[in-house]
């Protein structure tokens, strides 16, 4: 933490300003409250006074929300990089998923496989993307990755038009990929709090929501239509979904799959080419803009905040951990860049963060 004299003065000024607002509003309420409750009239207060006070108060509340967010979040705080994860070529990275415990799943297309990394960024397991065809094995190309409610790895297969789930308990000693569903062009994949799979169907402009039973049978299929090139998808913690549209907007649906709003319209934000999306436990939505090469956080209250504005070459997707770290897949840099976007973790101690001793992790100087 910066304890320089200049920073201390700025902190003191901010705290004094908020304290003055609190004291003044408290005194005003204490003095005028009894008069408004007992007096028949309103003295000399006019409609114009009320309108002006209402507008001023709304602006002050918004300013305070923005100040709160700016204090809580960080920008361009690069912690470390995971270089060439699993020996993947730069054009082969396509999907990423981060679990609450910090375990990360990374999809490689050029060399079809799913790498599983621990919190130190080390690959401790690799799932090869091959379909058993009798005595032969046929490779397939994974696009995005998530975990099912049962903890099994699920990927989208755009070429095959299916979802594939890795069953480690199959008759094959190394496990087996199970094909489920039939989708035109499955791209992004996620799981909602109820355990339903969420799949973005790119060419059809749809999102498919369904569950699977223990026998990998698809159940309770629901479909959201009217999207333009849906790319990546994630769930919100209240049961809704967030979907990015290629060269378009990012749409947010409620738990009943009704369109609530688009981020561009609600926050007056102009996207270039929104790609990866994710949410954190506080309900903040983060979006990668592939064209602008940045990451923007959309808080539940307040204005959008650009939390990564420099240092990205070709960002495509992202994931966040429960302890305040943001994993950004930068295919142009052939790496995963890990940023700290929160001043304080959610519920983790300092020990919960990744170790910087891993040989796969290369610290970099923070971009200016």
Gap between N and C termini: 18 Å
Helix/strand order, N-terminal first: HHEEEEEEEEEEEEEEEEEEEHEEEEEEEE
Mean pLDDT: 88
Helix content: 10-25%
Rg over CA atoms: 24 Å
Low-confidence stretches: 347-368
The beta-strand count equals 27
Note the quaternary state here.
Answer: single chain
DSSP helical segment count:
3
Keywords:
disordered C terminus, alpha+beta, about 375 residues, 3 helices
Describe this structure in words.
- With 368 residues, the chain is α+β, with helices and mostly antiparallel strands.
- Helices cover 18% and strands 39% of the residues.
- It has three helices and 27 strands.
- It has helices at residues 5-38, 47-72, 263-267, and strands spanning 78-83, 93-98, 104-108, 113-117, 123-128, 130-133, 136-139, 142-147, 153-157, 162-167, 176-180, 186-191, 197-201, 206-212, 218-224, 230-235, 241-245, 250-253, 259-262, 274-279, 285-289, 294-298, 305-308, 315-320, 325-330, 335-340, 361-362.
- It has a five-stranded antiparallel β-sheet with strand order 24-25-26-1-27, with no helix packed on it. A four-stranded antiparallel β-sheet has the order 2-3-4-5, with no helix packed on it. The chain has a four-stranded antiparallel β-sheet with strand order 8-9-10-11, with no helix packed on it.
- Strand 14 and strand 15 (218-224) form a beta hairpin.
- The longest helix is centred in the N-terminal third of the chain and has 34 residues, at 5-38.
- The chain is elongated, with a radius of gyration of 24 Å.
- The chain starts with a helix and ends in a 6-residue tail after the last strand.
